[in-house]
Every structure is written in C-alpha cells, then in structure tokens.
Amino acid sequence: MELPDAASLCEKLAEQIRPQLTPDTALIGIHTGGVWLAERLHAALGIAEPLGTIDVAFYRDDFGSRGLHARPRKSDIPFDIDGRPLILVDDVLYTGRTTRAALNELFDYGRPGRVDLAVLVDRGERQLPISPRYCPLTLTEPLPAGSRLRLSRSEAGELSLRIINA
Fold first, then answer.
1. Tens place of pLDDT for every residue, the chain, 166 residues?
2. CATH number of the domain that 23 lies in?
C-alpha cells in the first residue's frame, strides 16, 4: 500500500481546522505521534495557548493484558480546560480505545466546552463509536491483520507514515 507524504497530510489537516478556530481553542496531543503532529499544527495555526500533551498509559482499558508502556510520559496541560474548546490530536485512529482513554484523562482536568478529534489518518475498523472531526486521509481498505500504521519522526524532525507488519 502506497502511503501519502505525512507533511502534506499535516498541511491539509491544518487547513481543515483553521476555519473552526476561536481565540480560546487549545490543542492537546496524545503521546507520541499525536504530540509530534500537534506541535506542527500548533505552529502552523498560530495558536496562542501553549500546547498540551497527554499520555494515556494509565487510562487504557487493556492495561491489565498489555502492561504499562515501557516509557510512560507525564501529561502536561498548562491551561484551564473548563468551558474551553479543545482539539485532541492523534496520529492514527484505529479502534478508538486510545481516544477513549484520552477523554477519560482529560475530564480529570476539568470539563471542556467541546472536544474535537483531529487525526492524520483514520484506518477504520472501529471498536468504539468515535469519529474524527478533522482528518485528511481515511483508508478505504483495511490493513493486513496484525499490521500497524505508525507515524515516525526522523532526527531532523521530518514526519513519515509507515506500515509495520506483525
């Protein structure tokens, strides 16, 4: 399967989001790929509020079977979320379980006025009723069983998509 350039997808995503921004809109990226993408969007959109980051390691519903991620990161939301429009950013939307975990953690910080989801790629095959508001690429064919779609970042900071086969 031929994957498009991640940088051009990021530009398209920024253009989808731009018309909906308000002065109170804040971005929160999900570690790791979502944070890399949120950093790009934050700069491209000129959002004044600092970027928030969230690690869902302790909120996943498969924590018991998968165990703790090898390197959990600290969540950092340096602004009040109460009543604020938020855009939760992740790289790839698949089952919806990471997004659900992020929403659970977000509500521990307060009650946002609205939460929209922005992803670079929607690969389908959802297990939960979660859908992105902003998404420049939706895969029309499922990936082979056991395959994962990952956003990678080079030493130079360049983003790329790749398929990892099981």
1. 788 899 999 999 999 999 999 999 999 999 989 999 999 999 999 999 999 999 998 775 655 555 555 677 789 999 999 999 999 999 999 999 999 999 999 999 999 999 999 999 999 999 999 999 999 999 998 888 889 999 999 999 999 999 998 6
2. 3.40.50.2020
Q: Indicate whether 72 belongs to any domain.
A: no
Q: Is residue 100 part of a domain?
A: yes
The answer to whether residue 108 is domain-embedded is yes
**Which tokens go with 50?**
């600092």
Number of domains into which the chain is organized: 1
Query: Cα–chain-centroid distance for residue 35?
Result: 7
pTM (predicted TM-score): 0.93
**In sequence order, which residues have a C-beta less than 8 Å from that of residue 133 and are 6 or more positions away?**
116, 117, 118
